[in-house]
Amino acid sequence: MDKKTINEIKEKIIIEIEKTEKSIVEYKEITKPIAPENAIGRISRMDAINNKSVAEAALRKAEEKLNKLKYVLTQVGQNDFGICVTCKKPIPLGRILLMPQSRHCVNCAF
Q1: How far apart are CA 22 and CA 19, in angstroms?
Q2: What is the pLDDT of residue 35?
Q3: Which residues, in sequence order, are bridge partners of residue 90?
Q4: Which of 20, 36, 73, 103 sits in a 20 to 30 Å window from 85, CA-based?
């Protein structure tokens, strides 16, 4: 890869890291415990608990994505960057820009 492409990928990864960090902050706020003294009703409390579970799952995924993005950022420019870890074929640039945290080509991702 040329230097311009590498810089473009780094910028994309940094932007994704910033977005993901903001999402994590929001998810952490949403997943705070619901105080029992808050009179929201039984049905509303069940909805709140369900929404909290969904937000907790999203938080885990966002934290996982952040860790992958930080790792990939350290790998940009290395000889094996942009090579699928499974089949060892080049990952298309479009996929790298769309999902910079992925270390697999489309075929091996499934």
Answers
A1: 5
A2: 67
A3: 83
A4: 20
